[in-house]
TrEMBL record:
Pfam families: PB1. Residues 55-138 form the PB1 domain. Transmembrane segments: none annotated. GO terms for molecular function: DNA-binding transcription factor activity. It comes from the Eukaryota. This is PB1 domain-containing protein. Gene3D superfamilies: Phosphatidylinositol 3-kinase Catalytic Subunit, Chain A, domain 1.
Amino acid sequence: MGQLVLPVFFDEGAGNEFAGVMEYITPVRKECYIEIFELIHNILKDEGLKSTYMGKTIKVVYNGNTIRFTLPFSAKFTDLHTELTMRFTQLQHQIYRVEYNNTEGIPLPISGDDDLRICMTESSSRGAKFIRMFVCVE
């Protein structure tokens, strides 16, 4: 069986007040629950609730430094760049690309929403606890 467990919180103005837990069970384990999470996330949003717990730990290496943050499965390419420039402020004025190693160890660029989704899905399907990314200044 497969299982997706989400803590649910009241949205804006409630200070992340805990509302309860949702559990989604499938008869067969799914390779990835991102689509289900996004569907539930949108339904919760319409009801004034949210669940932002689902995410992946991202470890980014740049210029000899490593940072770590959590990126929600629903994150967009711009969210990744926002996180990076917030932590590596010197990137705000540079042209750079972000790469990760796929399951075969081949470095692949993350250049849009689709690339980020593939990266997150691939990582989840192999049960990795985090995704290591690399920033390359051009």
